[in-house]
């Protein structure tokens, strides 16, 4: 009982109103995003529009491109103007992307919607990670990352499962639910703190006017700010003490996941011939196992360091993916899905804790944006290559390549060297 009370008191310190609002926004946005990308678009584009898997991969990649291009500047904006204007702008653009999806059916409109979805959701991770880690301090990084990832995985996992119950002959009810949820995120975003918004933004303008006069051109102003951002990012890179191996490892981790994004639903529905209910069961099983392990793993990471958890998670996930398409029994596939969930539950908090440990506190927003941009490039290239592999080689190819990439990542991370402050043991 005393341990339970102690755990609850720790969580109360973490779950401040600010952090709760960030987690709620993350959950809802990822719910909407997961429903669109997993349950709606792949089957709709393949079965209704009859387009190739390669083009499906490109469409989904546009979402990641939009997300990836804006992550680094978003991190800088958080440091300069605060959370409210950044997050509010993002959720409004996300709402617009859902509106386009509701009212237009042509492929190019769907591609535009996916691009806007990526741009709109780009503030999500920089805002949530920066805000949560600032609130909890340095001693609970693993636990913090576990709670954040529970919110993320719950949204990503529940979105495709729940929305399936509202998809019938038309998507009207499903789209209505998604629109309602996005309106709710706009309302919640209005209550986020706008720390530094007035003073920081005014200081930029005043500095410019002092140097160039009140009638300076807009072009000169933006050139000046672009130079400031460039200098800021140069300073960020100089403040990091990591091996060069760290950067391809950031890419590989999300590239392996990106290879699976456009093909999971197609594999389940067209190769395994699972019903929507069976597929929902698989999503729930894999997601539930991951969520159940995240908090315990996060606490163990805080206590013992990241090394063993990353190693075991990468090996388990790699072996599972390499054997995934050779198993045809639905029961054994379910077992493999659950093992993959355990593997990612080991990887996620330990990997993110490793990343967080190398980031200087005073530049947390910008560096998270910088790192997430590198990670996001894996999410961009993964779906494009995955669709091409499916069409030209076969459905097994994306899964085999994903498993091989995780095996390579296991080798790479053995050579990652960071300074002695990092929790690598």
SSE order and pairing:
Layout: H1 2-14, H2 17-48, H3 53-81, H4 83-103, H5 107-121, H6 124-136, H7 141-164, H8 172-189, H9 197-212, H10 218-239, H11 246-258, H12 264-271, H13 276-304, H14 307-324, H15 330-357, H16 364-392, H17 396-413
Key features of this structure:
mainly alpha, 425 residues, disordered C terminus
How would you characterize this protein structure?
The protein has 425 residues and is mainly alpha-helical. It is 81% helix and 0% strand. Helix 2 (17-48) runs antiparallel to helix 8 and helix 6 (124-136) packs antiparallel against helix 7 (141-164). It is globular and about 50 Å long. The protein starts with a helix and ends in a 12-residue tail after the last helix.
Total of DSSP H or I helical runs spanning 4+ residues: 17
What is the helical fraction, as a range of percent? over 70%
**Could you say which structural class the secondary elements and strand pairing correspond to?**
mainly alpha
The overall pLDDT, averaged over residues, is: 76
The count of DSSP E runs of length 2 or more, i.e. the number of strands, is 0
Hey, roughly how much beta strand do the residues contain? under 5%
Low-confidence stretches: 196-219, 417-425
Q: Helices and strands, in N-to-C order?
A: HHHHHHHHHHHHHHHHH
């Amino acid at each position: 009982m005393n341990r339970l009370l102690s755990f609850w008191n720790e969580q109360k310190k973490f779950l401040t109103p600010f952090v709760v609002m960030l987690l709620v926004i993350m959950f809802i946005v990822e719910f909407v995003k997961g429903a669109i990308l997993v349950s709606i678009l792949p089957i709709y584009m393949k079965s209704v529009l009859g387009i190739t898997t390669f083009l499906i991969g490109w469409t989904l990649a546009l979402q990641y491109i939009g997300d990836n291009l804006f992550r680094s500047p978003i991190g800088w904006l958080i440091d300069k103007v605060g959370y409210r204007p950044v997050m509010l702008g993002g959720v409004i653009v996300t709402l617009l992307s859902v509106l386009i999806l509701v009212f237009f059916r042509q492929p190019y409109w769907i591609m535009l919607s996916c691009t806007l979805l990526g741009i709109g959701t780009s503030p999500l991770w920089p805002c949530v990670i920066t805000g949560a880690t600032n609130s909890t301090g340095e001693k609970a990084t693993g636990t913090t990352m576990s709670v954040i990832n529970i919110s993320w995985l719950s949204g990503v996992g529940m979105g495709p499962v729940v929305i399936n119950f509202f998809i019938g002959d038309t998507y009207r009810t499903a789209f209505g639910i998604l629109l309602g949820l996005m309106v709710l995120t706009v309302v919640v975003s209005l209550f986020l703190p706008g720390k530094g918004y007035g003073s920081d933004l005014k200081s930029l303008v005043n500095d410019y006017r002092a140097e160039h006069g009140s009638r300076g051109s807009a072009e000169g102003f933006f050139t000046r700010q672009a130079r400031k951002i460039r200098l800021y990012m140069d300073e960020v890179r100089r403040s990091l003490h990591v091996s060069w191996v760290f950067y391809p490892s950031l890419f590989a981790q999300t590239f392996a996941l990106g290879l699976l994004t456009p093909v999971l639903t197609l594999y389940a529905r067209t190769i395994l011939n699972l019903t929507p209910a069976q597929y929902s069961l698989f999503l729930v099983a894999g997601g539930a196992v991951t969520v159940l392990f995240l908090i315990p793993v996060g606490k163990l990471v805080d206590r013992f360091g990241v090394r063993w958890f990353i190693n075991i998670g990468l090996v388990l996930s790699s072996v599972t993916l390499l054997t995934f398409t050779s198993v045809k029994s639905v029961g054994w596939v379910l077992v493999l899905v659950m093992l993959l969930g355990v593997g990612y539950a080991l990887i996620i908090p330990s990997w993110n804790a490793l990343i967080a440990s190398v980031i200087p506190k005073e530049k947390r927003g910008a560096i998270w944006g910088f790192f997430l941009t590198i990670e996001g490039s894996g999410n961009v290239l993964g779906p494009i290559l995955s669709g091409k592999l499916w069409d030209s080689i076969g459905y097994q190819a994306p899964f085999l390549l994903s498993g091989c990439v995780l095996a390579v990542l296991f080798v790479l991370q053995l050579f990652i060297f960071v300074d002695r402050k990092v929790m690598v043991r």
